[in-house]
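Comment thread on ticket #2218

A.B. wrote:
> Attaching the input chain for the structure job we discussed in standup.
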Amino acid sequence: MSRARSAVLLLSSVLLAANLAGCDNKSRDQAKLDPGLTTPSSSSFDSPTEAQSPESMTPAPGDPTTTSSEPTIYPTTPGPITSHSTSRTPTTGPTSTHTQGPTGKPPTGPPPRNPCGTPPTGRSPDGKLRQRIVFQPPGNHQWPDNTLKLRGCSTSGLRVAYEFSENGHGPNCHVEDPAAATVQGQGYNITCRITATQPGNGTYAAATPITHTWMVGPLAMTAAFVGTSDELRYDADSPTITLHARVSAIHAIPKLTAGVGISGSASMSCIDPSFRTTIGGNGDNDIRFDVPVKLTDPTTGSGNCDLYLSVQVDQTVSGGQHSRHFTVAKTR
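C.D. wrote:
> Ran it. Output below, let me know if you need it in another format.
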């Protein structure tokens, strides 16, 4: 029994030696085929990180010793390099126009038209743009219209300034605040020379100043006998007739006294009516009223009656005076 066991051990030793010798021969043969391939020694597997490294465990492509059943994965052949530079060659074709998307601001439309109109062309000697002032004449005004809104403007859109004669605080030109946009005149009679100026800036040259005169005077009234023929008829049964008078102005007439009387000693065919009435004060600028006049018998067949119509005047009101010649004839 011991002999059989010894024989088995001897046979195992021989087979082991033969296998080791075969492995060594195979390694030498492999080294001959690939001189760069070295057989790792037993110490190279002492480091588990190197032994299990994917680089050391992956067989090289085309290795004839590869016996793995897994398919060999070859790297993809690199193709042409694609450039990501921003200087790529543009494609031909129509140029597209970028438009504001729906999230952008809506178009504002054309700018508002300058009330002063088109600016002058060309440039001034200093190279700046030209500009022009538009300042309409204020005209003549009547009491109580003694305020003026200054409406001058410049074609550049720059603010226009104003200069007043007597600095706006003289006996003829006196305003409450010369720097205000709407000036309030002080007094009943105003005569102001107003000059509109625009000095320019870094872009626009100074504009040529424009000067106008602003005047305020008393309210002018017109008084007259209206709607009556120049020939009056005397009737002995009804010697009193009615004449129609009218007083008008461009503004409301203040409360005043109006009167009618005889003018001249030649009026022998009517009696002085000595008529007095109060008019105005209610916002009207056109007032009509009746005047009773008593005629007398024109003994010669035709007589005269000269009448006047007068309305009270003062520093704020002027006019209101009217005379008219009437002939008086008998009724047939």
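A.B. wrote:
> Thanks. Noting for the ticket: The chain has three helices and 18 strands.
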